[in-house]
Amino acid sequence: MILTRFIGILFIIFFIGSPQIIMAQHTSENQSKEEGKEEKHHHTFFEKGSITLGVGAALSSELGTVGINGRLYYNIGEHICFGPEFTYFKKNEIELYDMDFVFHYIFETPIVGIYPVVGLNYTIEKELDHHHEEDAFGVLWGVGVHRNIKNITILGEFTRVESSLSDSFVSLAILYTF
């Protein structure tokens, strides 16, 4: 139920915001061309050698709660980025620490960038009331979409961790590229 609502809100925000984002970028590109300047920002790709830093929210399907997410990517080229992500969840007496090292390859569409997510995962789950802790290494896979607006990127992802602490996540984040 919570997952369905979260996904619904994510798509509403994305599809309501997309026309305004497209119009704003189109207007900006036309103004730059009129002024004789070439637009350096792209709606789906990242500048080679740049760094992208972001924060967001993630919904855990196993815990049924939303956590806070941080990510840092190094953009090898326009299509390729990789880097660490960290997400923290707390529900009642359970804390979950989810650490990933991910790789994205971006495919351009006219509106958004679409990318597969693959990577490695390390998860720690703590039951505070029983002083019990469990950890596991695993693999991560999923899919994401994003849209760049100059140096700002808005993204949505679905990822799945396969390990003894398997879980699925839906994430929404905002990033800044340096």
TrEMBL record:
Name recorded for this polypeptide: Outer membrane protein with beta-barrel domain
Lineage: Bacteria, Pseudomonadati, Bacteroidota, Cytophagia, Cytophagales
